[in-house]
């Protein structure tokens, strides 16, 4: 249990650093660390497959792409938009109200029942595969359609309109 | 335009066929070529131990020659220094004393004869200018060194070894 | 876990670590020597007999060189880059099965540090993490060439990871398990996966070349365009770490290829040899066989390096996205169809 609290503390610590870091590249690096702590959380929950997939997909691919794009844009202090004081104040006020609302609603709803796994080895590849392809086959396949539509959309966005004149470099 | 030499060849650029586009056969071919070289004898000449033969007219380190009796041929006329385009040669002449006839052929000889090997361009003009056939560029490659002053070669390094030793 | 068991694990980790470092060290020597042989030359032969002390001399040189951190670099990340590169290179070897269980003095010792049941995915994850070392180092150098090298490394690794993963999926259809230990056992007696998955193997091989940044895919560090790529600003042992990480990666990816496709520690006549040599020396002989196969792959890596010129960047991307990924998907479909009809 103490491991959990330690890792949980680290995740929160790093996520705070993500939003407070000055340089965007540093904030991405903290985000990587945050995701790494999530991976450890999954391992603690005996969800090996999910842990590794989180590792490969989020840390290994998505955040690499984030970092990639951030490296390409020149984010200097000069180009950083300076927000007026009133906007900042409004943002703080709004966020505070949101937090109050969340806390009060959580208090009202009462303690949620802890999730009890019927099968502690559900996270292993074989069991997870069986569950996904038997009980949850339809949602699983629907989500793949969602991914396909996203892919087609990306291709459509990337292809140039042939009627448009070519951009001169 | 009409070709002047009539040597112009129009090359036909054919589209690659499937095997050429697959690229793997070409890689296999390339790999076999390199593997053929893997077992060939190396062509390296390992320099300080093995030396490659110089050509006949190779111009290397200068040597000041002696005649058939072992006397130095140089008479310090200064023609080599005059002809030298890089001004690498300096010398000081001296008169031959009594009892030195077996050392120097002429009455005048070079007491100091220095060539700056950093200036020398090994053109061989000193060799051509010498009326006494005293200097030839028939030596080896000039050795490397650490200090500039060590590249000024005096008579101790230039004069040919005595005959009967 | 008993204390003795932990001790054995530690010893195994230390041995594997040591072996991969020594192999990486001598890979630098082998690279130069093999390059020389391919080009009809002699290669390094001055330090010791046949130059075998050359890696030590190189290492000493690396340590004694001046350490330079550029003024405008980000110092912490500048140090993190090479550390991360060598860390990810080293931890990948944890799940590779190096041999059958060895019995020494009545104790059964598995020659695999840990047999987690998602072994392949673990290696895959560590490899995908490896690009961070390059990216962080390249960005922290605050140099255009380094940044371009880092960006190239990132896009190249991501592009080729996809086809690598897809080629592994086809392999998983055949093996039915993600554990490397089980995959190695299944290949006993000529059931080498390369026979069932030749296309998958070639895809994996090409992707391995791209993932380890070896020629013909060494665009992140190509001298003609980018000076030194991501390690332009690095000197001393930090540079050494980057170069070292490349060779360790090569060793690990060779080991993975041998494990996944080329029968791991299995060899023809294995049962006979195991009976002849007993339970201690038999598995160790298997380890030697595996090691030999790995060395052959390392040789192949070098052979290709001195044969094939570098790809152009657009050709690299075309190959990755338009050729390898469709091929890998077709491979999965064909494999799946064949398996459904045969079983």
Automatic annotation (TrEMBL), chain B:
Keyword vocabulary terms for this entry: 4Fe-4S, Cell membrane, Iron, Iron-sulfur, Membrane, Metal-binding, NAD, Quinone, Repeat, Translocase, Ubiquinone
Gene Ontology cellular component annotations, sorted alphabetically: plasma membrane
Top-level EC class as recorded in UniProt: translocase
Biological processes annotated in GO: aerobic respiration
Binding-site list for [4Fe-4S] cluster 2: 84, 120, 123, 126
Documented EC number(s): 7.1.1.-
Record-linked SUPFAM superfamilies: 4Fe-4S ferredoxins (SSF54862)
Residues the record lists as binding [4Fe-4S] cluster 1: 74, 77, 80, 130
Main subcellular location: membrane
Subcellular location(s) per record: Cell membrane
Keyword Transcription regulation: no
Free-text cofactor note: Binds 2 [4Fe-4S] clusters per subunit.
Co-factor(s): [4Fe-4S] cluster
Entry's Gene Ontology molecular function annotations: 4 iron, 4 sulfur cluster binding; iron ion binding; NADH dehydrogenase (quinone) (non-electrogenic) activity; quinone binding
Membrane topology: Peripheral membrane protein
Xref: Pfam families: Fer4_7 (PF12838)
Top-level taxon: Bacteria
Reaction it catalyzes: a quinone + NADH + 5 H(+)(in) = a quinol + NAD(+) + 4 H(+)(out)
InterPro entries: 4Fe4S_Fe-S-bd, 4Fe4S_Fe_S_CS, NADH_quinone_OxRdtase_chainI
Domain called 4Fe-4S ferredoxin-type: residue spans: 65-94, 111-140
Assembly and binders: NDH-1 is composed of 14 different subunits. Subunits NuoA, H, J, K, L, M, N constitute the membrane sector of the complex.
Function: NDH-1 shuttles electrons from NADH, via FMN and iron-sulfur (Fe-S) centers, to quinones in the respiratory chain. The immediate electron acceptor for the enzyme in this species is believed to be ubiquinone. Couples the redox reaction to proton translocation (for every two electrons transferred, four hydrogen ions are translocated across the cytoplasmic membrane), and thus conserves the redox energy in a proton gradient.
Family: Belongs to the complex I 23 kDa subunit family.
Protein name: NADH-quinone oxidoreductase subunit I
Name of the encoding gene: nuoI
Automatic annotation (TrEMBL), chain C:
Record flagged with keyword Endoplasmic reticulum: no
Family statement: Belongs to the complex I subunit 1 family.
InterPro entries assigned: NADH_UbQ_OxRdtase_su1/FPO (IPR001694), NADH_UbQ_OxRdtase_su1_CS (IPR018086)
Gene it is expressed from: nuoH
Pfam family, one: NADHdh
Highest taxon listed in the record's lineage: Bacteria
Key words of the record: Cell membrane, Membrane, NAD, Oxidoreductase, Quinone, Translocase, Transmembrane, Transmembrane helix, Ubiquinone
Subcellular location: Cell membrane; Membrane
Function comment: NDH-1 shuttles electrons from NADH, via FMN and iron-sulfur (Fe-S) centers, to quinones in the respiratory chain. The immediate electron acceptor for the enzyme in this species is believed to be ubiquinone. Couples the redox reaction to proton translocation (for every two electrons transferred, four hydrogen ions are translocated across the cytoplasmic membrane), and thus conserves the redox energy in a proton gradient. This subunit may bind ubiquinone.
Complex formation: NDH-1 is composed of 14 different subunits. Subunits NuoA, H, J, K, L, M, N constitute the membrane sector of the complex.
EC number: 7.1.1.-
HAMAP family: NDH1_NuoH
Main location: membrane
Protein name, as recorded: NADH-quinone oxidoreductase subunit H
GO molecular function: NADH dehydrogenase activity; oxidoreductase activity, acting on NAD(P)H, quinone or similar compound as acceptor; quinone binding
Membrane topology: Multi-pass membrane protein
An individual GO BP term: aerobic respiration
């Amino acid at each position: 249990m103490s491991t959990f609290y330690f890792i949980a503390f680290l995740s929160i610590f790093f996520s705070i650093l993500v939003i407070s870091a000055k340089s965007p590249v540093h904030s991405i690096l903290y985000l990587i660390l945050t995701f790494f702590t999530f991976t450890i959380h999954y391992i603690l929950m005996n969800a090996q497959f999910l842990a590794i997939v989180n590792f490969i997909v989020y840390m290994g691919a998505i955040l690499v792409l984030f970092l990639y794009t951030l490296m390409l844009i020149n984010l200097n202090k000069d180009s950083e938009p300076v927000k007026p004081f009133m906007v900042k104040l409004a943002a703080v006020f709004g966020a505070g109200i949101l937090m109050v609302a969340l806390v009060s609603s959580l208090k009202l709803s009462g303690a949620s029942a802890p999730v009890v796994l019927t099968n502690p080895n559900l996270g292993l590849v074989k069991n997870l595969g069986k569950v996904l392809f038997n009980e949850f086959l339809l949602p699983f396949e629907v989500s793949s359609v969602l991914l396909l539509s996203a892919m087609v959309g990306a291709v459509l966005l990337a292809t140039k309109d042939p009627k448009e004149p070519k951009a001169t470099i | 335009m009409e070709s002047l030499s009539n040597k112009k060849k129009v090359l036909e650029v054919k589209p690659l066929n499937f095997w050429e586009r697959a690229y793997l056969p070409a890689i296999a071919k390339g790999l076999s070529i390199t593997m053929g070289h893997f077992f060939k004898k190396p062509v390296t000449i390992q320099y300080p131990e093995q030396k490659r033969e110089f050509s006949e007219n190779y111009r290397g380190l200068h040597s000041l020659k002696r005649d058939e009796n072992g006397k130095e041929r140089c008479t310090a006329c200064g023609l080599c220094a005059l002809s030298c385009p890089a001004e690498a040669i300096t010398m000081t002449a001296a008169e031959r004393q009594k009892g030195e006839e077996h050392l120097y052929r002429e009455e005048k000889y070079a007491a100091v004869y220095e060539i700056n090997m950093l200036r020398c361009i090994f053109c061989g003009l000193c060799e051509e200018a010498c009326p006494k056939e005293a200097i030839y560029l028939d030596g080896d490659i000039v050795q490397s060194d650490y200090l500039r002053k060590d590249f000024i070669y005096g008579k101790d390094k230039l004069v040919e070894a005595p005959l009967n030793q | 876990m008993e204390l003795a068991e932990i001790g054995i694990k530690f010893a195994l980790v230390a041995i594997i670590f040591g072996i991969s470092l020594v192999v990486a060290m001598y890979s630098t020597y082998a690279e130069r020597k093999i390059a020389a042989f391919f080009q009809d030359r002699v290669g390094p032969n001055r330090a010791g007999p046949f130059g075998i002390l050359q890696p030590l001399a190189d290492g000493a040189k690396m340590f004694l060189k001046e350490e330079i951190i550029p003024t405008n670099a980000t110092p912490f990340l500048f140090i993190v880059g090479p550390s991360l590169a060598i860390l990810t290179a080293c931890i990948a070897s944890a799940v590779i099965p190096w041999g059958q269980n060895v019995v020494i003095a009545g104790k059964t010792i598995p020659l695999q540090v840990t047999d987690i049941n998602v072994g392949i995915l673990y290696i895959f994850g560590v490899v995908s993490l490896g690009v961070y070392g390059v990216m962080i180092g390249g960005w922290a150098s605050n140099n255009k060439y380094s940044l371009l090298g880092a960006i190239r490394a990132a896009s190249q690794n991501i592009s080729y990871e996809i086809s690598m993963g897809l080629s592994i999926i086809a392999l998983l259809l055949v093996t039915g398990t993600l554990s490397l230990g089980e995959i190695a056992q299944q290949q006993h007696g000529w059931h080498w996966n390369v026979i069932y998955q030749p296309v998958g193997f070639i895809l994996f091989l090409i992707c391995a070349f791209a993932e380890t940044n070896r020629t013909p895919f060494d665009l992140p560090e190509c001298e003609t365009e980018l000076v030194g790529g991501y390690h332009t600003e690095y000197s001393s042992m930090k540079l050494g770490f980057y170069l070292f990480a490349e060779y360790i990666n090569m060793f690990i990816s060779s080991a993975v290829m041998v494990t996944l496709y080329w029968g791991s520690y299995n060899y023809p006549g294995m049962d006979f040899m195991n009976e002849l040599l007993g339970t201690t020396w038999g598995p160790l002989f298997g380890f030697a066989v595996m090691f030999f196969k790995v060395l052959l792959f390392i040789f192949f890596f070098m052979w290709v390096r001195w044969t094939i010129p570098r790809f152009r960047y657009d050709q690299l991307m075309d190959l990755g996205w338009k050729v390898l990924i469709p091929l890998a998907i077709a491979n999965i479909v064909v494999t799946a169809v064949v398996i459904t009809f045969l079983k």
